Amino acid sequence: MNAWKLVTVCIVALLAAGVEPAWTQNYPSKPIRVLLGYAPGGPTDVTARLVGQYLHETLGQPLVMDNRPGAGGSVAANMLTQADPDGYTLLLGANGEIAIAPNLHKKLPYDPLRDLAPISRVGWSQLVLVVYPGLPAKTTADLINLAKARPGSINFASAGIGSTAHLAGEYFKHLANINIVHVPYKGAGPAMSDLMGGQVQMLITGYSAASTHINSGKLRALAVTGAKRLRAAPDLPTIGETVPGYEVTSWYGFFAPARTPQAIIARLHKDVADVVKRPDVVERLVTLGIEPEGNTPAEFKAQIAREVATWGKVIKAANVHVE
C-alpha cells in the first residue's frame, strides 16, 4: 500500500471514530489545486479566478486553477472523486456536471450526492442569449421567426454536450418549437470565439463571460434566461417574455472529495462565505451577473438534490439523451 493510500485509510478510520486527524489543524500548508470542468474564458473559469484570488489571501496558500474540459464538466468532477480527501484538490463546479449530468448520462462514473462533499455555493447567475451580430435578429421574436423561416440553418453553440448551455438551448428549441442545430465545444470560451467569427449563430452562456463582448459589439445580446431581468443589464428582456414558461439559471460552487475531514470543509466554507460577502467582491460578482451566496454545506446539498429532480424534468421535456 503506497503512502497516500495509507493516509486515506487512516483518515477514514479516524472519521469513523469521530476523530479529526491532527494535521487538519495546520490546513492548508501547501497550494490547493482547483479543478475546472471547462476551458479558460467561460463563466466557471471567470468565477473561479475571481474568488480564488481572494481565497489566496484568507487561506494563506495559492489556489492553482487546473482546467480539465470535457463531457460538460463531468471529466473534472470525476477527477475530484479520485483525488485524496485531504483538502488539497477541490472542484469549482457548475450545475452542468452536478445537477444535469446524473439525468443525462446513463453511465456517469460518479454520483454527485454520494461522491462529492459540497462546501459552499459561490453564487447563481442568469444566462444570456447572444447571437452573431451579422444575424438579422435583434429580438428573441426575430430569432424565432428566422428559425421558422429557415429550419436547420441556425447553429447554436454550447460549452459541451450536457452542459447548462446545451440544455438551455435545447429547452429554448423545445418551447419555441423551432429547428436549430446544436454544435458542442469544449468550453464556453471556444464557443464564443467561433460565435464572434460567425462559424455559429447563437449561444446561451453565462452573462459574466459574455458581457465584455456584448459591450464591445462583438456579440448581440437578445435576452436573459431568468424569471426576472438582470440587475447588471435591466434593459435586456427575459426569454420568458417572448416564450412563456422559459426559465434557466446557472450556479457555481466549491466541492471536495467525499470523506474530506469536516474540519477542512468547515474552514473552506467559512473562507468562501466570508469572501463572497465582501462588498468589493459582491460588486464585482453582480457586475458579472452573479448573485453571491456563500451558503452552508447542508444548504448546498439540499439545493443539489432539488435541482437534480428539476433538470430531470427539463431533460425529459427536451428529449435529450447521452450514452
Key descriptive features of the protein:
D-Maltodextrin-Binding Protein, domain 2, single chain, 323 residues, alpha/beta, globular
Number of strands: 10
- The CATH architecture category of the largest domain equals 3-Layer(aba) Sandwich
Oligomer: single chain
Low-confidence stretches: none
CA-CA gap between termini: 35 Å
Q: How many alpha or pi helices? A: 12
Shape by Cα distribution: globular
Class from secondary-structure proportions:
alpha/beta
**CA gyration radius, whole angstroms:** 20 Å
Order of helices and strands: HEHEHEHHEHEHEHEHEEHHEH
Average pLDDT figure? 89
What would you say this structure looks like, in words?
This protein is α/β, with parallel strands linked by helices. The protein has two domains: 3-125 and 250-318, Bordetella uptake gene, domain 1 (D-Maltodextrin-Binding Protein, domain 2, 3-Layer(aba) Sandwich), CATH 3.40.190; 126-241, D-Maltodextrin-Binding Protein, domain 2 (3-Layer(aba) Sandwich), CATH 3.40.190. The chain has twelve helices and ten strands. The protein has helices spanning 3-16, 43-59, 74-81, 95-104, 112-115, 140-149, 164-176, 188-197, 207-216, 262-276, 279-287, 297-318, and strands spanning 32-36, 63-67, 89-94, 116-131, 155-158, 181-184, 202-206, 220-224, 249-257, 290-292. Strands 1, 2, 3, 4, 5, 6, 7, 8, 9 and 10 form a ten-stranded mixed sheet that branches.
